[in-house]
Amino acid sequence: MSLLLAEQVSCHFGSLRAVHEMSVSIAPGELRALIGANGAGKTTFFNLLSGFVAPTSGRVVFDGLDITAHAPHERVSMGIARTFQITEIFPELTLRENLRIPVEVAAGHRLRPWLARRASAAISSSIDELLELGKLTDKAGRLAGELSHGDQRTAEILMALALRPRLLLLDEPTAGMGDQETYDITELIRRLHRERSLSILLVEHDMRVVFRLADRIMVMAEGALLAEGTPAQIAADEKVQKAYLGDATA
Amino acid sequence: MRVERRVLVAALVWLLLVTTPYWINAVGGYTELGSRVIVMALAAMALNFLLGFTGTLSFGHAAYFGLGAYGVGMTIKYLVPSTGLGILIGIAVGTLAAAIIGALIKHLRGVYFAMVTIAFGQVFYFMAFNWHTLTGGDDGLTGWHREPLNFGFATLDIQAHDTAFYYFALTCFAAAVGAMALLLRSPFGRTLVAIRENERRARFLGIAVERHIWLSFVISCALVSLAGTLYALLNNFTDPRALRWDMSGNFVIMAVLGGMRSFWGPLVGAAVFVVLQDYMSSHTQNWMSIVGLIFVLVVLFFPRGVLGVLRGGSSS
Q1: Using CB atoms, which residue from A81, A82, A113 is nearest to B188?
Q2: B2–chain A Cβ distance below 8 A for any pair
């Protein structure tokens, strides 16, 4: 059974077909990559899955439930978390405060006017674990806006993880990073996938990252699905080679 | 270290407030002026719960301030001569109106939210202005006064003694400010700050943004209604100007003047505003021009407000 199923999902802005009749099925524990040239519709498709925009037609099913009309916060509470192409954090709050908010939300405390001491200790412990996972413990007290780009990207992934998702949507997690930062983020994603059996859908331009991580790869072109398969199948696909990859996997 | 400083500031603020009746005459003021500062500070801090900590600007908070004022005045005049019941009814009326209006406007943002709050505020203003038989119209609601507080075992005469009223207002202020402080340090308060900082991120952290903005609006308006009841009790009178848009503007000015990113900033702003108003209005009818000039200078050169300057941050 699919964890996430998108059936014939389209998103048209007037005459522009940003996404057209995309169908996807992601199994529990799968790490799927979505690639395509700029303007292919990858981020719009992400936005459709996460509820940021409503589809013109088609439906999205998560864990057997039709979530097409669900608001983003409802999808989050069901287990879908996402990051953004341009980092979305709380720059004027400390890293610890950035993580505290999703940890409290995930623990069901979002409307609580106060916290019992035991609950507060559990929250602190969860934050510490996340900081350790991202190797950011020593930067917990710094303002998030003052962290390096790589640390901010890591922080955003940790914020999504704090929500205890079953499906993580990562939109270009290594965008704008140097080699070492790219390696660190790639390793973090790999660990999340392997150690936590977390389902991940990854949009990424860096083909080294895609081919290192993905179980399966989807290729989008002009808003539609061009090809889908294992990394080896995609690398050998002539349509994909011609339309997008070139010698990027070499 | 930061916590210690916060506690120190709070201790200093409460020390000044609790001892006000003992020193205010020595510096050229009077106890009623202290009460006025307390009431306006409560209104400005209540507005700042929405503006400074949720990032949503309302230019119509005078509507709920005025509803609180008319609620207490009309209860005492027409229903029961009870200050306590009048306050409760005043708060209930203001909160109910905010709950209904907030539900209609919670999806609006920025200038649209601000403009619609002004529009709703003016609806209440014109109702109070035109419904002469009930509200007294432009002449205001007269013929009533605050009643002594009867606790069963003792009576506090807040009508005859300015100092007694000051401490009564300060008690209400403390309860409201304590509730605000508690909420802002809670998980709920942190969701409000998250919305202020980055609404999109907050939404994708599972926060029902519209519902939280509505809650923040209702809480803010409930507290500003309480300030409105105290304002009417302080004056033994209220009129449509308590509901008018320029009163809403005054609350915004107080919050920005003092520093809307700080908890105590609006208290400082209210103190500056009310004392300037009291002092300048006895010298010139154009006192608002001077307050306006100070406001412009603060916004231009000290965007974090008076408290921001005192903390050593002149910009950004």
Answers
A1: A113
A2: no
What are the DSSP E strand ranges found in B140-288?
A: 149-150, 155-156
Q: How many domains does chain A have?
A: 2
Phi, psi of B98 (to 5 degrees): -65, -40
B16 touches chain A (CB under 8 A): no
pLDDT tens string A143-153: 999 999 999 99
Place of tokens 């202290």: B34
pLDDT tens digits along B143-162: 999 999 988 899 999 999 99
In chain B, the residue whose alpha carbon lies closest to the alpha carbon of A119 is B187
Is residue B275 assigned to a domain? no
C-alpha A149/C-alpha A172 separation (Å) is 13
Q: Has residue B315 got a pLDDT over 50?
A: no
Domain membership flag for residue A84: no
By CB atoms closer than 10 A (0-12, 13-18, 19+), residue B286 is exposed
The stretches in chain A having pLDDT less than 70 are: 245-250
Nearest Cβ partner of A113 from B186, B203, B205? B186
A138, two tokens: 């020593």
A170 and A235 share a domain?
yes
| pLDDT tier for residue B234 given thresholds of 50, 70 and 90 | very high
- Which residues of A are less than 8 Å from B213 in CB distance? none
Q: Would you say residue B104 lies in a domain?
A: yes
- Considering the domain architecture, whether residues A188 and A74 belong to the same structural domain is answered as yes
Q: What is the largest CA-CA distance in chain A?
A: 60
- The confidence score (pLDDT) of residue B3 equals 63
* A72 to B183: CB separation less than 8 angstroms, yes or no: no
**CA-CA distance, B145 to B65, in Å (whole number)?**
18
B194 and A101: CB-CB below 8 Å?
yes
Contacts of A73 in chain B (CB under 8 A): 203-204, 206-209
- pLDDT tens digits, one per residue of A89-109: 999 999 999 999 999 999 999
Pick among B188, B205, B214, B260 to test the A interface (most A CBs inside 10 A): B205
Which residue segment(s) compose the domain that A239 sits in? 1-79+166-250
pLDDT of residue A247: 52
Distances (CA, A) of B267 to A31, B16, B50, B185, B306: 54, 12, 15, 19, 10
ipTM: 0.91
pLDDT score, position A245: 63
The set of residues, in sequence order, having a beta carbon less than 8 Å from that of A165 and lying 6+ positions away, is A76, A79, A80, A81, A198
Chain B hits for A141, CB-CB cut-off 8 Å, are none
What pLDDT digit, counting tens, does each position of B21-39 carry?
Answer: 999 999 999 999 999 999 9
Distances (CA, A) of A81 to A189, B78, B296: 14, 56, 43
What residue in A sits closest to B208 (Cα-Cα)? Answer: A73
